[in-house]
Amino acid sequence: MTTSRTIAVGDIHGCRAPFELLLASLAVCSEDTLVILGDVVDRGPDSRGVIEILLKLKDQCQLICITGNHEEMLLDVVDNKMPLQDWLSHGGDETLDSYGKGAAPARLPEEHVEFLRTWEDYYETPEHFFAHGNYLARKPLEQQPWHEMRWESLRNFRPGAHCSGKTAILGHTSDKQGEIFNLGHLICIDTYAHGGGWLTALEPETKKVWQTSIRGDEREGKLPPPRWQ
Question: What is the pTM for the complete model shown?
């Protein structure tokens, strides 16, 4: 009998090769839920390739994609809500180049743009909730200002345990040493894939961790124990 899994994946940032390697290790099936924590685009070399993989994954598992601040910037540029240069200065140039050197936002395939528009602010299970950047501990999940929170780094403030009692699984705040940040009530798995760290996947229920790198390295293990703030 197949046991379904819920697995979160940290910020991919255009790193197609380690993402493919990670998926090979995960071997997700139709019963599994794969939660992508946002920021799949920008900074890395192949944002287009990552989006194409995600579109295929929709037919292979239960795919949940959370909107990151980088997806928000892309959509704001497409919708003329943000100056192009503002996005380019945050890695948007690498995204556009993945669609053809010097490509303009108008060159982005409609299928890709509309796919990004369907992404969620958060996702929850009985024991955990998944979001991109941060949260307010005393506000219910459905009342969170997610537009602001997806920009808010854990370096600016570290919230306490959420009022729901659920453990938060987050991305966005990259650890430049490639380490998972675990406070017990809050776990951040942005481990700096595009900058030479690791791309991390976590199964919260079992605490199993899979990691791959742009160097082609792979490793598996367990979630490190919680540390003090």
Answer: 0.97
Residue 177 phi/psi, 5° resolution? Answer: -90, 0
Question: Tens of pLDDT along 63-99?
Answer: 999 999 999 999 999 999 999 999 999 999 999 999 9
